[in-house]
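Aim 2, interim progress: modelling of the arginine-bound target.
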Amino acid sequence: MIKHIQQCVTGGLTSLFGETFTAADFQVNTTVADFEGDYTVVLFALVKKLRLSPDVLGTKLGDYLAEAHPQLFKEYTIVKGFLNLSVADAYWMEVLLTNYTNADFGRQLPNGKKVMVEYSSPNTNKPLHLGHLRNNFLGWSVAEILKANGYEVIKSCIVNDRGIHICKSMIAWQRYANGATPESTGTKGDHFVGDYYVKFNEACTAEVNELVATGMAKELAEKEAPIMKATQQMLLDWEKGDPEVMSLWRRMNGWVYEGFAQTYARIGSDFDKTYYESDTYLLGKETVQAGLAKKVFVQREDNSVWIDLTADGLDEKLVQRKDGTSVYMTQDIGLAQQKYDQYGIDKSIYVIGNEQNYHMKVLQLICKRLGMPYADDIYHLSYGMVELPGGKMKSREGTVVDADDLLDEMVANAEKEAVKNNAGKPESEFNKMTRAEQQALFNMIGPGAMKYYLLKVDPKKTMVFNPEESIEFTGFTGAYIQYTHARIRSILRREAATPGWQPGAGVLLPLERSLIMALEQYPFVLEQAAAEYNPASIANYVYHLAKTFNSFYTEHAVASAETEDKKQLRLRILMLLANVIRSSMAMLGIGVPERM
Ligand code: ARG
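Predicted structure of the complex, ligand included:
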């Protein structure tokens, strides 16, 4: 409707005043409560340009709209520079009747554009943590939102499976494991390897302290610590392809992948393409050599390779170490190229935390300097850190919030909350479920609550995840929306809409209207979410839908509506509503139950 109004207004302005305007020249909002009308055209900007009083402009435009588009506009009022338009009931009815059985309502047809969304992208030296969950939820959701808007989307992940940090857990395993494996210890593979990463850091700190005690400067001691030297040697051996190192590397990464796969399955993350740094770094190194020849990079006396970005207000950046080994940036140079070569993408989105803003800025600039055609299509979807109410955490010390633990806690919280809400209600849907059905429900509600809580916040914002608050069945939570969906579905299970029904002459009541009006906005909301890469607008929207329904349902009956006509109308509203709630939540990666 907003688009219709924008078009009708620009058309009206041209035919009234002979001047061309665009939708950007004025605002269209939903009319604020307490005023008559559905949508409001804000006249101030136009008043200035046309040098007319708000009343004169409003009257001319209002009359024009009512006359030229009687099927859209019923009446209007002008309140101090705001033109409030009441949309004709017939329009809302048509929206409802055309779409109430359409499961794809809001989805756009293919637009021919290809987008890659890279997310998750873990290192293989430790398990996934809370930050990865925000990353996965965000990336997966943005990918789905783009798909709904007609983009062909490739979900991708780069596994940083090599490098100095991976060698650290390998060295620690060699030294301290005595051949132990995930199987022999009954530990999930990624956790098992992560424990050795922690062990490395403990051992390294001990060695550094010893050296410092002999009078060595700390900085030097950190380089000279024997375990550190062994790690650097291992990285060199790895790049040379030393069979023993390679075989340990494969074995340990294999353990990690098994662990990751389990976590991804729990949160519903999937990827169309997985890249591995152990491949991309080779192309990166080649590109560095090519860039050296083109003088984009410079080699220092110690053989290290750099790029000077001072002219762009950044600093000098290392792209290859003096011993010839590749750094984090090296592999990203290769990866950016590979993504483009393999898929011919129009846009390359990187979902990465804001602590890498600088890294991504440098990457884009390097691609530009190298004259890469895709340089401008790289987009860093940067997000803020997420913490628990307890505060900061560090993975080196093993104090990080583990993703699996947190998911377990969420499932347990869901159970507690459901039991609490159904206490003393033996006839409730929940209490009539089998244990297996209840368990499936907890697995849907718990992680769903977490997704919703993390996604309802603007990605850019740093946030605190509060597990207890997130699981509540009332308020701005995923469970509240899931519960609302189950309520609607339970009405629709008992009552079916009669096929072929045509609405009688009656008018729409305000809450019926509010519901249809909100539903009609869904395609627009999806479009906005895609334009801003922001699932929060969908989370907010679906909350608004649920609240509007709950207000509606306190006032109006459906099964025992005042007339058969009202019943048929309301059943159709509920059908579309259930569809849109399901679809919106699906965009966030959250399922909705039939019963709850
Ligand atoms: N593995 C990296 C990390 O954990 C994130 C990778 C992000 N993606 C990229 N193309 N650099 O910090």
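DSSP finds 22 helices and 14 strands in the chain. The chain has a mean pLDDT of 95.
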